């Protein structure tokens, strides 16, 4: 499972910290007040568009969200969060390369924006660029070492590139940070299955089920691990449970394997 981050809009600082405010004539002050007032209005307006776009993304209206993010960028072309969120909308619309271009721009503006590296990693992984994804997740982790989602997603990319041991190390770290992270147990079980550690996989699927008892796929995959380990009766019990939760594949396995 993946989690993608959206950078929430925030009020933009009009004066860099530490920069002195130089006072001049009354005319100059009046002019400065107008400029600051206009800048503040633009900043707030850009933030409003980003917030509106995020809400549209939550509702699945990605084209509407794209229009809002475009407007935010038109108002403030240096608004890194707007590019990051526009990248998310493009990715959801299937435009992975357009998404990556927006994440690139967000990172160019703010090289410490961990969300943009994380989201770019998702787009690269979807495009099959596992090494590029791993590099981006690593940068996100460098900026925020306590993000369990970045470890989980880097582990997914490592697993898909064939590095199951490296993946397990990252899943371990994600679980260390958040012991209730069901997806990390579920995904770690896949890596253990690849290594034919069926008992270890069964243990991880069981933990995922303990955290989320309604996860049909955790039951289904635990059934697969039990089947591979020779426990057909246990496998059938898990497949029946998965089927009752709506997994059609599990229903087929019950029909074919559990007479």
Helical residue percent?
A: over 70%
> How does the helix and strand content classify structurally?
mainly alpha
* Elements, N to C (H/E): HHHHHHHHHHHHH
Low-confidence stretches: 5-38
Structural write-up:
This protein has 13 helices and no strands. The radius of gyration is 24 Å and the shape is elongated. It has 259 residues and is mainly α. It has helices spanning 26-59, 62-75, 80-92, 96-109, 114-126, 130-143, 148-160, 164-177, 182-194, 198-211, 216-228, 232-244, 248-257. Among the domains are: 36-112, Serine Threonine Protein Phosphatase 5, Tetratricopeptide repeat, CATH 1.25.40.10; 214-259, no CATH class.
Features:
single chain, 259 residues, mainly alpha, Serine Threonine Protein Phosphatase 5, Tetratricopeptide repeat, 0% strand, elongated
